[in-house]
Amino acid sequence: MPGAIYAEGLVKTFGDVRALDGVDLDVPEGTVLGLLGPNGAGKTTTVRCLTTLLRPDSGRAVVAGIDVLDHPDQVRRSIGLSGQFAAVDEYLTGRENLQMVGQLYQMSAKAAKARAGELLDQFNLADAADRPAKTYSGGMRRRLDLAAALVVSPPVMFMDEPTTGLDPRNRQQLWEVIKQLVSGGTTLLLTTQYLEEADHLAHDIAVVDHGRVIARGTSDQLKARTGGERVEVVVHEREHMAAAAEVLAGFGKGDTTVEEHTRKLTVPVTGGAKLLAEVIRELDVRGIEIDDIGLRRPTLDDVFLSLTGHAAEVKDADEDDEGGTSADTRGRKRKKESVK
Amino acid sequence: MSAVTDAAPRATRPHPLGQSVRDSLVVAKRNLIRMSRIPEMIIFGLFQPIMFVVLFSYVFGGSMNIGGSTDSGVYREFLMAGIFAQTVTFATAGAGAGIAEDMHKGLVDRFRSLPMARGAVLTGRTLADLVQTALTLLVLAIVALLVGWRTHTNVGEVLGAFGLLLLMGYAFTWIGALIGLSVRTPEAATSGGLVWLFPVTFVSNAFVDSSRMTPWLRHIAEWNPFSATVQACRELFGNPGVSNSGAWPMEHPVWASLIYSALIIVIFRTLAVRKYRSATA
């Protein structure tokens, strides 16, 4: 039996761009799926297809047991959507916003009013309830947007990058809210480009790139795919890099990655802290001065890199100037360019 | 927080027509609240027609020939129906900009994910604009009275004329809605919503006697839906300058105005609602 959110072979093209290239998803009832990927991977398009905002060119989607393409109106009764850009009317007060949404969910004016009051209390917005939303902070707006998505307590929720642009404190707060929500049994599909967020909130993670799900599993399963821990060394002198690489090769269980410009060398290892101590000793014996050394366990960032060849938190602007992408990506890009 | 997923009222399934009316009113209320919190918009909306009244009647007034009279008082009475009509059409740009902004800000996504009537977001917006247009007309009529405009018929006919004006204004907001849904930014909707109004309102009988135009231009002016409403208003106000043209809309301006407005609503509402259903920000 398909889960609360089920998609099979979703394809959507915009002109020449194949935004979705056969997305398959299956989210069991009461669980959280984190849809993880960089900008332009197809996360938002997937959410838009599942929430009836966009009709896929082909494929099938079932949400809360209802076929999305055949009965979009029925699907809308069973879902809540919280968008990437907090979609509240900034000239309306928090209360007015929630009341309006309630009425548009076909609640009576009275019921919508009562529900708005409840939600404002629950989301700590009671004090600001009668102020226009444009006076709210970013975090408050997100909470209001989330509250609007919860007016009818839908069994299935979609959140498109709920914490993008929030400061760490507000992000933490919103995470707590989301955790409490899903502990009540709501099925949630959450998109994010923050690996930490998916790790934190989701039972399962689907990694999306170029309109496809390229990997799927629990956070631990995905990390296991990337292999175990690794030693990372930053040498002080560029001339010492070759010698350091030689040392690491002796301890490593795989190829050593060398990044010239950051003077960083990375090698997969087994043996933990004891091995790390041996590496330090050996480097010392050979007179290789080091700026930094550490034992790193794989993060979801590494998972993403090993799956896609580029880092996950790639921002649009950074793609142009290569300035903000991770060192690994830069290294690879440079190498590719030099081959050309 | 624990109560978030507890028994909240479920969405129910109401009658389609009743739902459509109710949802439209909910959205209209939202837009009216919005407008009341941005009073600058209403003030600027009033400023332009008042400026036109003053500029046209005092600057052009003396050099216009209306039905053989060059008296500026005659021109002022002639002018008002034109200014009223032009004013109601300018609501178009507001509707377009408002809808484009809702798309831009993601509100249309929110609305489209709700189990609400399909056309209600647009109908609600156009109804709110109708209220604003009515207020603008009221203020403008007072200004017109102050500068010497008078009607020479009965109350029923005068109210009828304002009814036709509001109907045309309402019809035009659907054109604005379609423009708003078709452009990428609110700014584009504002300029795109205004630019076509200049030929429509100037190639007409609104500010000059269209019978003095070059024949081909005269035909366009006389069959211009906008001219029909202006002609109807002059007739119903008993103001000077009613065209003697044999063109059907000039001979039957009230009917022509009603038919044109109804046609515009049917055509542009259909197009706009269809566009809304597939709208993407």
Describe this structure in words.
The complex is a heterodimer of chains A (340) and B (281). Chain A is α/β, with parallel strands linked by helices. Chain A has two domains: 5-224, Rossmann fold, CATH 3.40.50; 227-296, Alpha-Beta Plaits (2-Layer Sandwich). Chain A has helices spanning 43-50, 72-78, 94-104, 109-122, 138-149, 168-183, 195-201, 219-225, 241-251, 272-285, 300-308, 316-321, 327-339; strands at 5-14, 17-27, 32-36, 58-63, 66-67, 79-82, 156-160, 187-192, 204-209, 212-217, 230-235, 257-259, 264-268, 290-296. In chain A, the strands form three sheets. A six-stranded mixed sheet of chain A has the order 6-7-8-3-9-10, with helices on both faces. In chain A, strand 9 and strand 10 (212-217) form a beta hairpin. Chain A is elongated, with a radius of gyration of 24 Å. The model of chain A is unreliable at 313-340 (pLDDT under 50). Chain B is mostly helical and 281 residues long. Chain B has one domain (16-278). In chain B, helix 7 runs parallel beside helix 13. The interface between A and B is large, with 47 and 39 residues.
Brief digest:
Chain A has 340 residues and is α/β, with parallel strands linked by helices. Helix content of chain A is 40%, strand content 24%. Chain A has a six-stranded mixed beta sheet, with helices on both faces. In chain A, strands 2-1-4-5 form a four-stranded antiparallel beta sheet, covered by helices on one side. A four-stranded antiparallel beta sheet of chain A has the order 12-13-11-14, sandwiched between helices.
Offer a few descriptive terms.
heterodimer, A: 340 residues, alpha/beta, Rossmann fold, Alpha-Beta Plaits, six-stranded mixed beta sheet, four-stranded antiparallel beta sheet, 40% helix, B: 281 residues, mainly alpha, 73% helix, elongated, disordered N terminus
